[in-house]
Amino acid sequence: MNNIVKKAIAFCAFTGLLITVICVTYNILRWKDTTGEYRSSVEQLYNTEDNLIDVVFVGSSHVYCDIYPCFLWEKAGISSFDMSVAGQDKVSSYYELKELLKTQSPKVVFVDLYGLFSDGNGIEGNRYRNLISMKPSSNSYNHVKEFFKEDKETDINDYLFRFPIVHTRYKELTRLDFEDYIPNSFLRGEEIIFTVGSAAASPTAHDTESSMLS
């Protein structure tokens, strides 16, 4: 009897240690750039107090580069959040919003039209950012299932279990993989770039002006 108890204790201890090692390893190797530009709207959401957000902007990089919650708060007293991910498609917009509604009760939701006309992610990294950014839950599971509903070739287990995607990251690890995002709650999903330089209209803008004049 004592031998059985010892084996049971050893098995439980080994299992617990194995789970701990896997969790710690995954936390280091996991896809950190879950929004774009090495920032994370989802991480900021998880670090935001419940029922704090009144207005939500859902969408792609057009949102996190152009909507500034801190400005809206300073100028109009509006508590807002950019629930945005680079290249966000309409399926991802829906499930990202559902994730936000777990803890927030916004009065108004604005949706970026870019995602409404996009069925997928043109960049592989954007697909990872959209599909494996949220904490594992029934919501993240349903997100992956619906995204690949018409795709019978992709192995969705890579996205459901995540580790098959991130275990190849050993060569690309940087200091950011071992540190928390700073700040990870203040910006409310926005992107701020501290650079100074000249700006010029894109060639597309010049072409449009020329065609209008002609």
Q: Can you offer a commentary on this structure?
A:
The chain is mainly α and 214 residues long. The chain has one domain. It is built from eleven helices and three strands. It has a three-stranded parallel sheet with strand order 2-1-3, with helices on both faces.
SSE order: HHEHHEHEHHHHHH
- Helix proportion range: 40-55%
First-residue to last-residue Cα separation: 94 Å
Summarize the biggest pleated sheet: 3 strands, parallel
Shape: globular
Rg measurement, Å: 21 Å
Counted up, domains total 1
Key attributes of the depicted protein:
mainly alpha; 11 helices; three-stranded parallel sheet; disordered C terminus; globular; 214 residues
Give a short overview.
This protein is mostly helical. It is built from eleven helices and three strands. A three-stranded parallel β-sheet has the order 2-1-3, with helices on both faces.
